[in-house]
Amino acid sequence: MTTVLGIETSCDETAAAVVLDGRTILSTIVASQIDLHARYGGVFPEVASRAHIEAIGAVVEQAVHDAGVGYDQIDAIAVTRGPGLVGSLLVGVNYAKGLALATGKPLLGINHLEGHVYSLWLTEPNREIKFPVLVLIVSGGHTELLLMEDHGQYRRLGGTLDDAAGEAFDKVGRLLGLPFPGGPNIERAAMMGNAIAYKFPRAKRDDSYDFSFSGLKTAVLREVTVPPASGEPRRRGETPRLRADVSINDVAASFQDALVSALVDKTARAAKAYQVTEILLAGGVSANQVLRQRMRAEAGLPVRYPPLNLCTDNAAMIAAAGFYRYRAGLRHGLELDVKPMWPLTSDAYTR
Ligand code: KG4
Ligand code: ZN
Predict the structure, then answer these.
(1) pTM score
(2) Least confident piece of the model among 3-7, 183-187, 201-205
(3) Who contacts 184 (Cβ-Cβ below 8 Å, separation ≥6)?
(4) What percent of the chain has pLDDT above 70?
(5) Is the CB of 185 under 6 A from ligand 1?
(6) 288 touches ligand 1 (CB under 6 Å)
(7) Residue 166: CB within 6 Å of ligand 1?
(8) Helix crossing, 248-273 with 289-299: angle to 10°?
(9) Cα(142)–Cα(222) distance, rounded to whole angstroms?
(10) How far is the CA of 283 from the centre of ligand 2 (A)?
(11) Domains of the chain (ranges plus CATH)?
(12) Distance between CA atoms of 264 and 270, rounded to whole angstroms?
């Protein structure tokens, strides 16, 4: 039995968790900053790192307490090293170093995207996952399509060329005057809307597995806002005005349909091309019910996705990824640094 303490502070959630053998959650604590950032309509890095500093001690202590273990029963401390906001990452990494020094336990710096991948190993822990699988990570910061051939073996097939899927949800949500974060609020509005009311651009018809959402976002903007008076440029930072005849619900439904179509089309095509056993969805946007249902219907393969609390950022997924890295022999010293930009590839941990 291997017990790993996970710590995650890469964006706007301060989280700690204790996981057994990479599959069983003993405790998971997430202190969300959503209310804090909702006031600004997005995540402010300085505000985020200050909130992490205030929360981290209590969050870790609570996770260890709830797991019913002492530090002597913990085998390793896994912390998110990147990618993410540098000031936020530093809070978690420094706290983990302090703990490693105080307890003498090994320290492991973990890739946040790999954490999202391993959230699937915490889902239905008794059902085996057979490689190769296709993993679609869709969050506020990332849109990555990965072929996973074994533990730690990733081939990046494609990703977004501009906005992340969750970022597109958040930007369109803000445009429509919906509260932050946009994703769940757009999904709710879309339930009462007509998905074919507006024709927004869908997946690029090309051979790549890349995505692009900024054109979709601009198309929504153009369709639903009052154009600036002729010859007058829109001032930077000015909030565009919505046209009076716009149905928020119809725009939400049509936008969601276009974005989900792009994700499903390319993922389903890759799944066939690489003959995977199943499709794994991870990240905040994988909470979206329309994405889940359409992926299942159109890919013709089993589709696995995490429960809601494991879709969004958490530390149980970092502890789970940490377990597989610990088993493979990874150990870091106290000189561990943060990697704000850190793509997930098979050689990610050796570079
Ligand atoms: O994984 P996550 O918590 O944080 C990052 O690592 O970015 O993802 C947050 C993102 C936000 O952009 C949010 O709008 C989106 O996930 N999201 C959703 C839904 N729930 C959260 N997007 C679409 N539909 C949802 N139900
Ligand atoms: Zn994330």
Answers:
(1) 0.93
(2) 201-205
(3) 287
(4) 96
(5) no
(6) yes
(7) yes
(8) 40
(9) 25
(10) 6
(11) 3-123+310-327 (3.30.420.40), 133-229+239-305 (3.30.420.40)
(12) 10
